[in-house]
Amino acid sequence: MSPGALALKGAVLAYQWTVRPVIGCNCRFLPSCSDYALEAIAKHGALHGSVLSTRRILRCNPWHPGGLDPVPPARD
Amino acid sequence: MDQKRLLAAIALSVGILLIFDVWNRTMNPAPVAPPPVAHEQTSGSPVPAPVVPAAPGAEVSAAPAAPATAPAQTVAVANGRVEGRISARGLQLDQLVLRDYREHTRPNSPLVRLLAPRGLPEGYFAQWGWTAADGRTPVPGNDTDWTVTGGPLSAASPVTFTWDNGVGQVFEAVVSLDDNYMFGVRQRVINRGDQAVTLLPWARIRRERTPQTAGFFILHEGFIAVQDGRLNEVTYNDGKSNAATARGTAYEGEASAGWAGLSDKYWLTALTRAEDGQRLRSAFRHVPEGNVDRWQVDVAPPTAATVPAGGEAAFATRLFAGAKEVHLLDRYRDRLGVQDFDKAIDFGWFYFITKPFFYALDWLGRTFGNFGVAILVFTFSLKLFFFPLANKAYKSMSKMRLLAPKMTEIRERYKEDPAKMQAEMMALYKTEKINPASGCLPILIQIPVFFALYKVLFVAIEMRHAPFFGWIQDLSAPDPTNLFNLFGLLPYDPPAFFHLPAWALIMGVTMWLQQKLNPQPPDPIQAKIFQWMPVIFTFMLASFPAGLIIYWAWNNLLSIAQQGYIMRLDQKRQQASLTPAQGGAAPK
């Protein structure tokens, strides 16, 4: 993992263990947005993983039905 | 499994850090108020004599035991909002009391004293002077007695200080004051000698010790400067370590617009240019003397002025010394061109949200006559604004109830495999076109907004000494009641660590209730932390300003009420749509 990817992973984990317990888990998807981000960064790297995660969070609103939405497989 | 343990360890560490923070804060009680103004002359000079070149100013404290020096002439300063004095010895503004602010909420509590003479441990003063860049011209020093023309200093009448160095140069400083907290100082040197002299004028703020800071990491206290549009902040701690590697200079910058000073939570001293186009070099310095830390902010032109025989040179600066009132700082920014002066209030990263919030709260506070009510009303309007988001999410709530049997079935079937259970649930949601969660995006949008409100409440001077209903006399101080002496029923004063005020308990209970309505985290360990959060927060927030806890509790209550309201609304809607259908004559 690149340093950037590691830093992002740390940030997401920190969110899951400190902020999420306070605000509750409000995700409409499986896996949840934060789990999705961890997986996307691991599979696609810091840059592409962040893009995927951002798009996922934008989808995660009351006007989207939600449901199962796994991380797309890596291209190679 | 290993990762689970690692994560549990991380969670535990975070918990310990939080508890340590609370411990730390309760073990360091609020700063002891400086003695009232009247007592100041009785204190001697308990600090060792300063060793820097600019030393002899220590006598200014005029301890009665040192009659060798004649007492310095002083000029009274008063404009209705401030009261103080300028010492003609060394040209130091070394006494300033803010008449609109008191140390405590008690009616006869002493006024807030911002500046104090050099010899006192809380010494904090401003000074104007010159440095001989040519190394030979005699310049005024800390023990120079300037000649005073005029006085006392008020908004209507400036005062002129002059000093003749005896070899041809006359130094002059014209000090003025406005109706609030802004001083103007125009320094001038007139060269009547027959040789050119090279002199560097300067203005400085000195603080003779590190003040007791509020110690919250969301609030900056220490050196602060705006230099050509860039905000620079250096805490006392960072200043010390910066200075250690840069020969005492913690910060240095040169700019054609801006200001530099020392910021407390509510008070500020800052130096800025008085004339457009004047470039200024600003510095923040740390001067250790023995085990006492001295701090200095100084401004000067980038280069010394060479004054030809018969010529003169001038340097004009302004000094702000007073309370950080947002409208006043705005006015100085707009009328005097003090760049970004409102940033002296720590509005933070979300400036574009926090500043408007501040105006709204301030307006509400004045309209309702109580800042606590303003907090309640403002939080309510914010909730109202986000209501459509929440409403949309909970629309499917009653549909969920119809599906309850199916969901219990899934839960029973996959008891052993939570991951599979969740997947099945999601599949069910999809086929039935429902979803109980509101989604991450609405939450993500709301976090900065509510954090901004929190931040505004933290920095607003309007909250200082503002009362609320019942036992709250000061919204910016911790709630004084305590569960451990049954809210004052027992004649017992528990140690600082055992502080559990009534409002913190109310906050904890509302948080717990609100959590009951929230979905739980999927991970079992996280779910455990989740359950303990209300308890952790109750203790963590116990020593926070009461206004913040009231805001937090009110916010929780509103969330609960909102959820209840939406669910009832939804039930009615459901009934309305069911009744005609049962009759079999539902219109299409």
From TrEMBL, chain A:
Primary residence: membrane
Function description: Could be involved in insertion of integral membrane proteins into the membrane.
Keyword list, A-Z: Cell membrane, Membrane
Keyword Ligase appears in the UniProt entry: no
Matches recorded under HAMAP family: UPF0161_YidD
A Pfam family recorded for this sequence: YidD
UniProt topology in membrane: Peripheral membrane protein
PANTHER family registered for this protein in UniProt: MEMBRANE PROTEIN INSERTION EFFICIENCY FACTOR-RELATED (PTHR33383)
Family note: Belongs to the UPF0161 family.
Protein's cellular compartments: Cell membrane
Matching InterPro entries: Membr_insert_effic_factor_YidD
Organism per entry: Sabulicella glaciei
Protein name per the record: Putative membrane protein insertion efficiency factor
Taxonomic path: Bacteria, Pseudomonadati, Pseudomonadota, Alphaproteobacteria, Acetobacterales
TrEMBL record, chain B:
Chief place where the protein resides: membrane
Regions that span the bilayer: 6-23, 367-390, 440-461, 496-513, 534-554
Gene3D superfamilies found in the cross-reference section: 2.70.98.90
Membrane-topology annotation of the record: Multi-pass membrane protein
Protein name: Membrane protein insertase YidC
Family of this protein: Belongs to the OXA1/ALB3/YidC family. Type 1 subfamily.
Domain Membrane insertase YidC/Oxa/ALB C-terminal stretches: 371-568
Membrane insertase YidC N-terminal domain boundaries: 75-359
CDD domains: 5TM_YidC_Alb3, EcYidC-like_peri
Domain of life: Bacteria
Record's subunit section: Interacts with the Sec translocase complex via SecD. Specifically interacts with transmembrane segments of nascent integral membrane proteins during membrane integration.
Gene label: yidC
HAMAP family: YidC_type1 (MF_01810)
